[in-house]
Amino acid sequence: xxxxxxxxxxxxxxxxxxxxxxxxxxxxxxxxxxxxxxxxxxxxxxxxxxxxxxxxxxxxxxxxxxxxxxxxxxxxxxxxxxxxxxxxxxxxxxxxxxxxxxxxxxxxxxxxxxxxxxxxxxxxxxxxxxxxxxxxxxxxxxxxxxxxxxxxxxxxxxxxxxxxxxxxxxxxxxxxxxxxxxxxxxxxxxxxxxxxxxxxxxxxxxxxxxxxxxxxxxxxxxxxxxxxxxxxxxxxxxxxxxxxxxxxxxxxxxxxxxxxxxxxxxxxxxxxxxxxxxxxxxxxxxxxxxxxxxxxxxxxxxxxxxxxxxxxxxxxxxxxxxxxxxxxxxxxxxxxxxxxxxxxxxxxxxxxxxxxxxxxxxxxxxxxxxxxxxxxxxxxxxxxxx
Length: 386
Description:
Domain ATP-grasp: 88-279
Oligomer: single chain
Protein name: ATP-grasp domain-containing protein
Helix content: 25-40%
Pfam family, one: ATP-grasp_3
CATH superfamily of the largest domain: ATP-grasp fold, B domain
Distance between the termini: 54 Å
CATH architecture of the largest domain: 2-Layer Sandwich
Shape: globular
Keywords: ATP-binding, Ligase, Nucleotide-binding
Number of helices: 12
GO molecular function, one term: ATP binding
């Protein structure tokens, strides 16, 4: 089966990886010939995603269109071209429009009486300030005092349209929901770890939550999906603060990172579920916690240092490739070349449980450090300094 992936950044990397695991052929369209996903697809077309005629011609040759961009105008153009070509597209425009606005999402959470972080007017410092329409961790600020707030206002201008809410401490979790017309299926909950810039640096599975807490989170996610009348896929991110989930954000599109972790942990490929008939084939399937998974991003620096960082360190690395048995990891998505002094990799490591996966992960880091005479690995305490 041939599928078209629209956009080659990190969402495109996710789509390309899952497409390959499904046994599908993938053609990627992006303006940037060195887009990260370009090295992971069977074919690459360098083109603007607003070129209607070119897209329609391509879509007539494929079975599925997978948008992997976050520009509303571009998404609507892709949708129009898919309709003109009569091909299935993974995109719910109404749900995406609401989820792409954190302000509108917060209004939805309030209507559903879901617990959320307190708005700034009702809490003290520290406060998290983030743009309503930006993706993930982009331009997220933690403000510790009124002085910091005033300095940020001087730097950025009027912040009335920004989201301002209490900063909460606690572990973060994510879950995906797929379905339509009220029939929804949740997937394995994953645990997220963030870097200093609030960008996800590591995803772990299975999440260390009680059965009761898992059921609570799944119920909240389905409640949101029903309210959105979701037709497709969305993810929900929460933080567990004082033993209570607080909903942080939703995204009604194919996420990056977590679907791969769910696939490695459970064998369930969300793209296959999204393919027409896929949900029916897996109707009411309960997803077991079958494998432990560690998924994290590293950068090996020329100054003999390994940095563990958010997925932003992968974004500007050029074409990425899937590498098997990478220094002991099951797989890596990387621009690795033995002659490079600096390179990045997303390590994908599994074990019979999460503890075993973490032990393997530590061995992988040590293997890389030994091979490249790396002295320190930030974030882990592993050191070769003598």
